Amino acid sequence: MAISAAPYICSMKELMTIEKPALFSFRECLWFLDRGYDDCLFRIHDQQLTRFILLDGKPILFRISDAGNSLAVHLLHGSVSDHQLPLLRNHIMDWFDMNKDLSPFYALLQRDKKLQYMPKDFEGLRLISITDLFEALCWSIIGQQINLTFAYKLKRRLVEAFGTALTYEDHTYHLFPSPEKLRSLSVEDLRPLQYSQSKAKYLIGIAQAFAEKKLSYEMLAALKDFNAMQQALIAHKGIGVWTANYVLMKTMRVPNAIPYGDVGLLKALETHEIIKERNETEKIERFFKKYKGWEAYLVFYLWRSLAPPVFQTK
Predict the structure, then answer these.
(1) Nearest CA to 34 among 313, 312, 307?
(2) Which pTM does this prediction carry?
């Protein structure tokens, strides 16, 4: 579905500023979002981030830019009422995990001889969220057993074929397809997009679970216990332990939801000489115990370590 491309009179209206917390780097966060992969759900250009979302059920296009000690948020398309401003603020702050105080995590890193370089080299990097649980689960299923480059291609094909699109200033922005839309599809609809039969079945099945209210963010959040959340997810076909833990880490922000077996994580552990063999599960578990309450952040920073520092100043 396409939305009218004509910008409103309020184009580029500044909606708000959001004060940066301590140990926050917008540039470092943008680097993680823009690692050379073709993500179709936002655009980064000239150190500005533009995103199309549903806010309170209505589509808006907004842009975030660095404004010194704060982030400036401009409205490009759509309308935001005064009572909706806190919703947008909370969405952005949750996306960038801006309510988290990183100083205890950095103190742990600085006591670790192998990782003590991280607070300086990656200062201000936040655990970037996938705020929508349905999107996070679909993305995890799409990425199973394939490389990231191909996974992003598959996601783009799905989004462009079945999502909502908005063209603004010669660039098209997208919303991830709704559960109701994906639920209405058949395996045959997805096969031309190079989805395997099993992946297509899993995506449609998860969409059906959401559409029928058998799975939701609120349902998982009410469980509170990590094991209960994990079991609620893996009860659905297509969701294994890795997928459940990844989503609990990225969307629910469960600190000890470690995606064990992740190839990038294992590579980083080898690089830092924390393990010699990838099957050394006891060593890995002992290592993460030193970072209790910060396991998910440690995973994120280990992923970040696979690429060299980009910015010398934040």
Answers:
(1) 307
(2) 0.93
Which residues are catalytically annotated? Answer: 262
Alpha-carbon distance 115 to 130, whole Å? Answer: 26
Distance separating alpha carbons of residues 110 and 270, to the nearest angstrom = 20
Q: State the Cα–Cα distance between residues 251 and 260, nearest whole angstrom.
A: 17
Q: Is 111 helix (H, G, I), strand (E, B) or coil?
A: coil
Kindly list the structural domains of the chain, giving each domain's residue range(s) and its CATH number in brackets, ordered by start.
2-100 (3.30.310.20), 133-250 (1.10.340.30), 263-304 (no CATH)
For the stretch 225-249, what's the b/e string if a residue is b when 16 or more beta carbons lie within 10 angstroms of its beta carbon?
ebeebbebbbebebbeebbbbbbbb
pLDDT, tens digit (0-9, with 9 covering 90-100), for 275-285: 999 999 999 99
Split at pLDDT 50, 70, 90, the class of 11 is low
Q: Which two tokens stand for residue 298?
A: 């440690």
